[in-house]
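Tokens in:
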């Protein structure tokens, strides 16, 4: 299995990732619309979905991050301004949220979802590229770097400690690191720049602005960027057991 699973390419080029139709449970509102690329323990999954129409959801059944890559989604919740999601914008919907989701045109979104029975952060949270960046507290270990240490910043919109999950926007100056086991499950949607992910077989997966991918925990990948990279991310620390 390719370590870095490409979910979408903004260029329109096909991806080699295998998708399968499926639901994320009996009450999944997008059950008939999903294309799943990966599923693992803790109910974490990643893939894409195609949607047109409207859904009234009284209680969202899990935590889900949606990033629009084609078309437009409208997400409405009581007491808040409607969120209009166009390409390169997204939303995090917590378990239990009451939402109305609609699209007046065929819309494609990439997703990352996880079981979260009792969220400590209920609600609906927009993801935006112009985030409130702060210096990242966890510096990369010197022993994995192949060059200068980068300057990284992040904005955690959701820190769902009940399932070890953080979601937000991140950016970094260029850097290069060795191929190593990825320490977390991670969904990424590239907002700016490009990254080359080296793999143990010598192949390289390259992603650019507008692309989306998922790297399961334990899969060995490197990182090389030659310009500023910004991304939406979902990271979750779970035991490294295989997904598919």
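Residues out:
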């Amino acid at each position: 299995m390719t370590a870095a699973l490409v979910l979408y390419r903004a260029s329109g080029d096909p991806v080699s990732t295998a998708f399968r139709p499926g639901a994320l449970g009996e009450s999944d509102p997008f059950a008939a619309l999903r294309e799943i690329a990966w599923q693992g323990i803790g109910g974490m999954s990643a893939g894409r979905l195609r949607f047109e129409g409207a859904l009234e959801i009284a209680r969202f059944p899990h935590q889900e991050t949606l990033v629009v890559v084609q078309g437009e989604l409208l997400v409405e919740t009581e007491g808040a301004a409607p969120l209009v999601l166009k390409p390169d914008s997204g939303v995090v919907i917590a378990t239990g949220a009451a939402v109305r989701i609609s699209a007046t045109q065929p819309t494609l979104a990439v997703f990352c979802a996880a079981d979260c029975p009792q969220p400590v952060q209920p609600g609906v949270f927009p993801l935006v590229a112009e985030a409130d960046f702060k210096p990242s507290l966890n510096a990369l270990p010197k022993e994995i770097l192949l060059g200068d240490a980068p300057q990284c910043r992040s904005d955690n919109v959701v820190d769902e400690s009940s399932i070890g999950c953080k979601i937000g926007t991140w950016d970094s100056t260029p850097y290069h690191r060795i191929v190593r086991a990825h320490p977390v499950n991670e969904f990424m949607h590239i907002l700016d720049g490009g990254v080359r992910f080296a793999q143990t077989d010598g192949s390289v997966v390259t992603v650019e602005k507008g692309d989306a991918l998922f790297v399961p925990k334990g899969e060995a990948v490197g990182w090389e960027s030659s310009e500023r990279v910004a991304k939406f991310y979902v990271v979750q620390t779970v035991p490294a057991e295989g997904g598919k």
